[in-house]
Design a protein that fits this description.
single chain, mainly alpha
């Protein structure tokens, strides 16, 4: 289920933002479920957080590249 960096790099700005919102919401919902003991899938949060970090890193790389700071 893990997102690969190469897959993330192919996404447009709008798709990146949409995916960021989806991941953030899913992490939030999982936290609620864990706190109310509706799920025990705590490893899923770790995977989602890493995906979110990967996505944000690539998004920042694209911003810097657009400004001409990173080649």
């Amino acid at each position: 289920d893990r997102m690969k960096a190469s897959d993330i790099r192919t996404l447009s700005e709008n798709e990146l933002e949409k995916k960021r919102v989806e991941l953030t919401e899913e992490i939030f919902n999982l936290r609620i479920q864990i706190s109310t003991q509706q799920t025990t899938n705590v490893t899923r949060i770790r995977t989602l957080k890493k995906d979110l970090a990967r996505l944000l890193t690539i998004k920042r790389e694209k911003e810097l590249r657009a400004q001409g700071e990173v080649k």
